[in-house]
Amino acid sequence: MGHGLTFTIGRGTEVVLAAALALKPLVLNTNLDHVFNSACGWEEFHRRLTCDS
C-alpha cells in the first residue's frame, strides 16, 4: 500500500480525471473516523476501492 502521484502532459490528464471520477462514488460520504479508527475500517475501505466483484 502507498500512494501515487501522477503528472500528465497532453491528453493523459483526461484519463487521470476519468479514473478519479470513477472512484468518486466509492469515496463520497465515507466516514473517515470509521476508516482510520475501527479495527477493520481501512481494510473495508481499501477493498471497496480495489476489488471489482
Protein architecture, described:
The chain contains three helices and no strands. With 53 residues, it is mainly alpha-helical. The longest helix has 16 residues, at 12-27.
What is the chain-wise order of helices and strands? HHH
Strands, count? 0
Total number of helices: 3
Q: What can be said about the biggest beta sheet?
A: none
Mean pLDDT rating:
89
Helix content: 55-70%
Low-confidence stretches: none
Alpha-carbon distance between the two ends: 20 Å
Question: Judging from the principal axes of the Cα atoms, what is the shape?
Answer: elongated
Q: Could you tell me the strand content as a percent range?
A: under 5%
Q: Measured on Cα atoms, how large is the radius of gyration? A: 14 Å
Structural class: mainly alpha
Which helices and strands occur, and which strands form pairs?
Layout: H1 12-27, H2 32-37, H3 41-50
